[in-house]
Design goal:
This protein is an alpha/beta fold and 284 residues long. The chain has 10 helices and 11 strands.
């Protein structure tokens, strides 16, 4: 069994991005929009800020009180869409219950939607014409490159159908793999399905859901679920148990999370480069 070290993979990506940014005249900038004061969300934002500053991406944080109106949030996003210094925009989820998530995410223009969460961006991605790859899906691909499992010969099981991880990962892999099975809360016998997987990706947020008796010997196991368990961050996979049977496995923390942040910033750098090309093209 080999541990897929997300921190090491993320560092490699960050080093590459740092070299690219050093050659750019216009510094990339990421704008993060958030409403509320949830400690977990603020912690995720801090992680993004730390990584951005580490590689030379400007980080702009716009924090609203939880009671903010939809109009104020959309107005800010509209201004950021038009701001040439801003390369990418994300809205940190979850939003307070009164704010319409769909309308707010759809306010971000596709060329700055580095999280790939607006309807337009997601449709383009599902058609195979994306401006960007959703960061969690990009992170999963990075792990699979290291595991060297031939996707065209592999059966893949994705546990979880969430819009942040499960859906984009499934959409990315469906054209690349031999067989794709998606499991959710309606799946009657989860263990029966997961045992078929050469590659198992779980993104539910239920601690220790996946046990070793639920996987095929030698499977690649990617744990993209996170939740608080006994005062600590835990993944969907019972790491100590499943690692006895898997060929490759990601830990939580230190697995998918750091690589997802690195892939988000890779999208920001890509957006900045595209913006520069557009400016050059329209210059009189």
């Amino acid at each position: 069994m080999a541990i897929l070290d997300g921190r090491a993979i993320a560092q490699k990506i960050k080093n590459q991005l740092k070299r690219k940014i050093a050659k750019m005249k216009l510094k990339p900038a990421l704008a993060v929009v958030y409403a509320g004061s949830d400690p977990a969300s603020l912690s995720y934002i801090k992680a993004k800020e730390k990584t951005a500053k580490e590689i030379g991406v400007d980080f702009l944080f716009y924090k609203f009180p939880a009671q903010v109106s939809e109009e104020k949030v959309v107005s800010l996003i509209s201004g950021l869409n038009q701001n040439e210094k801003v390369s990418g925009i994300i809205v940190q989820l979850p939003l307070p219950a009164h704010l319409p998530k769909k309308e707010i995410l759809n306010a971000i223009v596709p060329e700055k939607d580095v999280d790939v969460l607006s309807d337009e961006s997601r449709k383009k991605f599902e058609k195979g014409e994306p401006a960007f790859v959703p960061p969690p899906a990009g992170a999963v691909l990075e792990f699979l490159k290291i595991a060297k499992k031939p996707l065209e010969k592999s059966s893949v099981v994705v546990v979880g159908r969430g819009m942040l991880v499960g859906e984009p990962v499934a959409a990315l892999l469906k054209q690349k793999v031999k067989k794709l099975i998606i499991c959710d809360r309606k799946t009657k016998n989860l263990s029966y399905e997961t045992k078929k997987a050469d590659i198992l990706i779980s993104a539910v947020g239920r601690p220790n859901l996946i046990k070793k008796e639920m996987i095929k010997k030698g499977a690649v196991v990617i744990d993209a679920g996170t939740a608080k368990h006994l005062g600590r961050i835990a993944g969907d996979v019972d790491f100590a148990d499943v690692s006895l049977k898997a060929s490759y496995i990601t830990p939580v923390p230190g697995g998918v999370g750091p690589v997802t942040v690195a892939m988000l910033l890779a999208n920001v750098v890509k957006a900045a480069k595209k913006a520069v090309k557009i400016c050059i093209a329209v210059k009189p």
